Amino acid sequence: MPDVSARTGANGQAVIYAGRFADQVADADLPENCIVLGEREAPSCKLTRALDRANMLIFMDLPSFSTETMISDHWDVPIFVVIPSDFTAESLAATCGPELFEQLGFFDRIVTQNSALWEVLRQKYHWAESQRIPVAGNPASEVTGTVQALMKARPSSPVPEENGIDPDSYLTKALHRVQAAVIEPRFAAAQEKRDTKVPFDVLEVGSGVGRWASSFHPANTRFVGIDAREDLLGEARANFPDQRFDRLGPDLLLPYREESFDLVFSVTVMHLYSTSAKRTLLSEMWRVVRPGGWLLLLENFVFTGQSEKPTIYPMSVTEFANLIVDTTAEQVVLDHVESLQYPGEDLRRGGLISLMRLGVPKI
Amino acid sequence: MSRDDFYTPTDTDVLRMENELLVFEVRFLKAQLSASEAERQRPAARFKRQLEETRTRLEETRTRLEERENQLARAKRAEQDIVSLLGLLANSPFSWFFGLKQSFRVLERRYLDTDA
Fold first, then answer.
1. Any CB–CB contact under 8 A between A337 and chain B?
2. Which of the residue ranges A36-40, A96-100, A143-147, A354-358 would you say has the lowest mean pLDDT?
3. Domain segments of chain B as ranges
4. What value does the mean pLDDT take over residues A149-154?
5. Which pLDDT band holds residue A247 (cuts at 50, 70, 90)?
6. Contact list, A349 vs chain B (CB under 8 Å)
7. Do residues A8 and A54 lie in contact, with contact meaning Cβ atoms separated by under 8 Å?
8. Strands A109-112 and A244-247
9. Which residues of B touch A321 (CB under 8 A)?
10. A89 contacts: CB under 8 Å, gap ≥ 6
11. ipTM value of the model?
């Protein structure tokens, strides 16, 4: 299990891999808990030790850094990548694509002044608009300004607190990666069983700022997110302009025809609702999924009582399973169950339940 | 515990909920394991049946082959007997008498390879 305490609170540090610009960055007015590494430190133990304590990782000089130094745990740290301005999208994709860009997700940030380059890379790697940090001038030449912009961006990044997720950027990304490791294979499994010529219709209930939208390729998926909070919907629409995000009304009735989606899922949403509201949501989710389609429910089933949020309705997995059986009239098959342990926690709190809807599709 | 009100779970509640989660997962995994074992056994049983059928067919073929070999051996023995008998008759003092018979001459040509 990763040592979370080494990264959080006063122990954590921002690691800036400045490469060739190390001298310039060292002159910048940086906060105390920053460590700047140059090109000479790239393949060293010093870099590994720094990564072990990092709660933020900034790549200033991409061409001189190799991601081979990074082990799985290091990818939990929010990464800020400064895109060199003298590279084309094609050359960047060829040199950094599989090793770095494909590993970056919703909680990482891309620093670039070049909007056209950003747009090409955003579409290629399904990045959200909020992942871009625009900088004035050439990021490489104006190193000091870039670093200061990143430090300024740090407290507000990466997302507002939602659905009980800790706003601490390191823990948020680490938690998301734990959830993604469990739920994304289920997304892929559901998609594999469909005809690839027909678009895959996906609905996320409680989509928040849309962090799961990037898990689906817009070319073969029609993603729809629905959420009760207008402010989060605004951010989701800004993040993913090509995707659709709708408002969930107070009656919790989904504004879609029955049997409209191949996959309907929610991630840590149900605990925000009372049992009767959970019942409504579950039965609505079951109604809109097609027979043979999938219902994925990733929830927390263990509550430690440490949350200060006033509206949490804990429900154990047994009670939740009984509720599913009731609301779906037993017309589902249990396909997969998996518990989750979040970084730095002793208990296994989360659980994924994957269900397939039974029945004959209406034509 | 009320399901519709917010409450602060006690340590016992927390452990109970984690226990339920783990029991639920284990139940699912056990069910999946026995299902996959059944799946594995299904083709195994089919292969076993197929193997038995093939073995039976092989036995039948072997039996038929032995019967053919026996028949062939018997036919060869009969041919040898005919050859010996014809040889005896052809070399006996009454050979002139048998030589008058056309059927004997045919048999001589057939089995003793003579032009007589």
1. yes
2. A143-147
3. 10-112
4. 60
5. very high
6. 18, 21
7. no
8. unpaired
9. 24
10. A117, A120, A121, A124
11. 0.76
